[in-house]
Amino acid sequence: MSLPLDLHPVLASFGGAIDFIFNPQTSNVTGGKDVGGFDQAVELILAQLQISLYAMALSLLVALPIGLYLGHRGKGELIAIGFGNAGRAIPELALIAFMAAAIGVGVLNLTIALAVLGIPPILTNAFVGVKQVDRSTVDAARGIGMTEFEILRKVEIPLAIPTIFTGIRGSTIAIVATATIAPLAGVESLGDFILNENVYGEDGVLAGAILVALLALTLEFTLAGIQRLLTSEGLRLKTT
Amino acid sequence: MRIDQTKLRMVLAGVLALALALGVAACGSDDDTTGGSTAAETDGGAIASNPANGKVNLTIGSKNFPEQEILGEIYAQALSAAGYKVKSDLNLGSETVALKSVKSGAISGYPEYASTALTSFFGLEPEEVPADATEAWEKANEEFEKEGLTAFEPTPFASANAVGTLKKTAEKYELEDVSDLEGVSEELSLYGSPECRQRIDCLAGLEKLYGLKFKSFNPVDIGLRYTVLEKGQADLSILFTTDPQLSAESDKFVILEDDKEVFPAGNVIFVTEKATAEKAGPDYEKTILQVQEGLTLEVMQELDARVELEKQTPKEAAASYLESAGYTG
Amino acid sequence: MASPALLAAVGEVGGDFFKERTSETLPCQAKSGELFCWDWAGENIDRYVTPTLQHLELVLISLAIGFAIAFSLSLLAHRRAWLRPPLLIGTGILYTIPSVAFFFLLLPITGRGRETAIIALSAYTLQIIYRNTMVGLANVPASVKDAARGMGQTDRQILWRVELPLATPEIIAGLRIATVSTVAIATLAVFAGGGGLGTQIYGGGNLDFLTSIIIAAVIVIAMALILDGLLLAFQRLTMPWRRAAS
After folding, report:
1. Residue of A93, A105, A193 to mutate for B, most B C-beta atoms under 10 A
2. Per residue in B230-245, pLDDT tens?
3. Which residues of chain B are within 8 Å of residue C8 when distances are taken between CB atoms?
4. CATH of region A36-238
5. What's the maximum distance between 2 C-alpha atoms anywhere in chain C?
6. Which CATH number describes the domain made up of B161-255?
């Protein structure tokens, strides 16, 4: 590897990729069908978001109730935190390949695989967020006659929202990032551009990479903004 | 492919006779002769190592499925035995990526199917692809030469794409030929590699020349072409005629007859830059042609079976072929 | 003695070359969907040695580079508060960009291969190590620093003799997280042509072979846990008086 002293080819590559995003090109493979262009770019971006959405929904459905409950009871720390750490160790490529080979390709199977990656951050953060609520506040609430569920709903969760949302953020980014290799499970996403140089050419590959990076950054930026809005003024001052 | 059989048998018989005669001569010197200072005496014997080749660095590439990797390994190991300094960079991708790698010099050469070269690179329609292996090679070579490349003569075996399905699906819809899919294909899903959509010897051909429309086309990696059938997700899948699953699991999988001859069979021709061939000396082409003489359809299928079914590495399979066929000690 | 070369002509394989295969006689690894083939695994386990070593090499080099850079950055930002937001954002961007995309963004610049993989993997670790180092340093009680200053120590001495040692648990915590993540992500290095255990998952022929996928995944997870454990042990050994920050 040698760093190019001449930047021109590098800029040309990126220029070609930008062109690919906006203008359809003749495909590498003869056959007359054009590839690339704005419409297809948007189509694949939406496809990647769609599968991510399904997986997020499933992750939330599974992880939130369990995390909140365990956090409220203060039990199950091993599971909640252990899962969080273990989740980081799961190689996403293996997970997706495993699902595809063992159960089959397709949206449903990929959703489950992605949810496996998305559950740990939500589970851990929901647990920690609720558990960290000041015990005296909880006791006070219990004292005025709130039921356990009411405590959870009206006291603990609102106070835990910043932490919970941090988990949701992490989960979303992890899922969207992994959805890049969705084509390995037969599902459309920007990974189609990246993994199929034979069809889309070098420009397509780079274009796909640029779009994925932009997608992830935009998402992170948006979620960070939402987090700031969700954190009430008092908490914001407290949690730096 | 059955078009080739007679010619194939003739070629095979000729090769056998020649090899038998030369094999007798080889008996006297059937070890790798190292240290020979003359040009390699490789006629009819094991591949002899020529020290003069040691100055040449070669990188052998291949496309992204097992049969290709086996071929790449066979060539790489053979050239190594001939004294070259060989690296392999297999699993590059599909044909356009591989061709680009040759042109850019990233690899010295790779094995391509003459039919793929003609249809994918040079835009021929399937009916324009010659059925005769030598004619197809000559035609492809003509086009390659215009770009400074050259292709060596073809292997004995040929392979083609095919529309495959589960036996019970074929029985259910009474499918024997691809044409039988008329009227039925709208209910069936087809799975193939991503470039299949545009290739005339794949989906594009099925749509244009057979006039078929499918319920859906789903791109998947070549490695999953049987998995999707087994899991019941694909009604139809694009397979290769040399696939070992077709003979080993013939009670499960079946391919439809290509009655309109949209999937031309291709023998393998080694594609390389002319400049590379010249710099590498005569042993380059000689070794490659020599070592592929033993690649009959049966042998290729056996090698494919070892890698795809028994999960041997392409390297092991190639090595056992070279040894069993007497090319290496 | 009849040499085999006489009986089988060169170019023709020996008679025992071919094997009859039917659905009934297929070995475990030939059957699609078989979860795990123990026999095959036992015989072929040495296939995983080189990829594992490659994987380990990628991880260790990336962590070393990532730590060196992130640590230096946090030292820079320690006394210059104005640096902190841009560094946090900068490392955050590198962290947010999915690794696969990162590999292919680097492709025109650094080409395929190990170096590209290492650059992307290192970049991924920066944020977590930087942030944890900053938090660790920030958590040092002012009273301790004042006491040290009172004893006549220079800022530099305070940094290296007081602040950093006290910040170490937090730093190591960050390093542990970075390690586990990097081990997992390094499987993607196969897309950059960087080798590693991903080659046994995505490499030709493995995509439908559950046994290989499982073996590779198990090795990756084991590697992550072992490295994590080593770091934890290191911390306990060198600073037994400090409980590890979770």
Report:
1. A105
2. 999 999 999 999 999 9
3. 23, 326
4. 1.10.3720.10
5. 96
6. 3.40.190.120
